[in-house]
Design a protein that fits this description.
The chain is of the alpha+beta class. It contains ten helices and 26 strands. A hairpin with a 2-residue loop joins strand 1 and strand 2.
């Protein structure tokens, strides 16, 4: 349901992430609610459990009173999409009970500023890809021969690794600077201590909405049936730990200490109007990775750093459209060997970088391994993330008067424990 002429009877600021064209899904709590499924419009959270209890949604209320959205998502896209359409109808019909019955209105609408957003899904398994050609080229240029920045397999398959789901936290959390082994350039042996090169990775992630069995595979043509929606994602990294440990099996302690996810899942239906072309894939990919149409998305992504007691500094403006490998290709590759997937699994894009320096999605690239420090508004400099720095990621799509946003993905780095 992507009619650009839709208008809600509830006032929504033009710059709001949560327009009538969005209607995302999440889980919230407040003083009177432990955990209810919710949506959002403008400055409000919409309590879906209360709507169902008042028989304004065609959904078993008990499914909307769970700690996570997994059971709701497991209802299937036919039902969850129909529920989203019901919500849009309620919010655009001036004669709806939701608008005209005060008791229902007060039970359903809560100010976003007055509630706490919770982790939206129970993540069973988490995969992180490495699918931005600009990012991979930058990293390869720094650490290898610039003429051969991309490894031989990179343009043939979406490179990825299995990450750690237990340390994925919802926006608003803080975490301790990780410790581990590092090997200084001037030392023959490794040393142990807190990372000196704490970094961010500007990413998105998609949430699996339909399970498969061992031996099944998902084609690019059918992939969208298995993707419920998208979130913002920050895959925190310890670059000095990573450099020492990643050969031969890839990142381990440098990645598994913290990742941050935004609380709102924006559905593929809401994102569909913002499809766009991606980079031309050369050489031609194998048949199981081929797809038809425009499958990238025009999502503007902004990153801010906020020192303790200071103000926000915008440091990155990038876009998801720069991804070389699409979500559909990532999922097709993930399952082509018969790997099964489950509702709630999270698959992250990998660092999203564009071709211009202000579009680079990590401090590693922004400061070019610390050789070009960032100057902040307070006069301080950053080569990497300092203790007590807060990182904020925001993202939105905008076209033809329609705006669909993701809210915020926020976390603060604390000193090592």
């Amino acid at each position: 349901m992507s009619n650009k002429n839709l208008t809600s009877w509830l006032e929504v600021a033009p710059a709001s992430d949560f327009s009538i064209h969005n209607i995302p899904f999440g889980i919230y709590s407040d003083q009177g609610v432990n955990h209810h499924a919710c949506s959002a419009i403008g400055d409000y959270v919409i309590d879906l459990y209360e709507l169902a209890k008042h028989q304004l949604l065609s959904c078993d209320a008990s499914v909307l009173e769970q700690l996570y959205l997994n059971d709701f998502i497991s209802l299937g896209k036919t039902k969850t999409s129909a529920l989203r359409v019901q919500l849009i109808t309620l919010l655009t019909d001036p004669n709806s009970r939701l608008k005209n019955e005060e008791a229902i209105f007060n039970a359903v609408f809560k100010k976003q500023s007055a509630v706490k957003m919770l982790m939206p899904v129970r993540v069973g398994d988490y995969t992180d890809f490495y699918s931005s050609m600009d990012h991979a080229t930058n990293v390869g240029t720094m650490f290898r021969d610039p003429a051969n920045a991309l490894l031989p397999n990179w343009k043939h398959l979406p490179v990825g690794y299995h990450g750690r789901s237990s340390s994925i936290c919802v926006s608003g959390h803080s975490f301790f600077r990780p410790k581990g082994q590092q090997k200084p350039a001037d030392s023959e042996t490794p040393v142990f201590g807190p990372t000196k090169l704490l970094d961010i990775e500007l990413e998105t992630a998609f949430v699996i909405g339909k399970s498969t069995s061992l031996g099944d595979n998902v084609t690019t043509a059918l992939a969208d049936e298995y993707i419920f929606g998208m979130v913002l994602f920050n895959d925190w990294s310890a670059r000095d730990i990573q450099t020492w440990e990643y050969v031969p099996l890839g990142p381990f302690l440098s990645k598994n200490f913290a990742s941050t996810v935004s609380p709102w899942i924006v559905t593929l239906e809401a994102l569909e109007p913002f499809r766009t072309k991606g980079y031309k894939q050369e050489p031609k990919v194998l048949p199981y990775l081929q797809y038809v149409g425009d499958r990238n998305l025009d999502i503007q992504l902004d990153v801010f750093i906020k020192p303790k007691g200071g103000e926000e500094n915008k440091i990155i403006t990038s876009n998801y459209k720069y991804m070389y490998w699409t979500m559909e290709q990532q999922l097709a590759h993930h399952t082509v060997n018969g790997c099964n997937i489950n509702v709630g699994d999270l698959m992250a894009s990998g660092t999203i970088s564009g071709p211009q320096p202000h579009e680079y999605g990590s401090f590693l690239e922004l400061t070019w391994r610390g050789t070009k420090p960032l100057k902040l508004n307070d006069g301080s400099e950053r080569k990497f993330v300092n203790d007590f720095d807060t990182i904020i990621i925001r993202g939105h799509c905008e076209k033809d008067g329609m705006r669909v946003g993701f809210g915020e993905c926020v976390a603060t780095a604390l000193p090592a424990k």
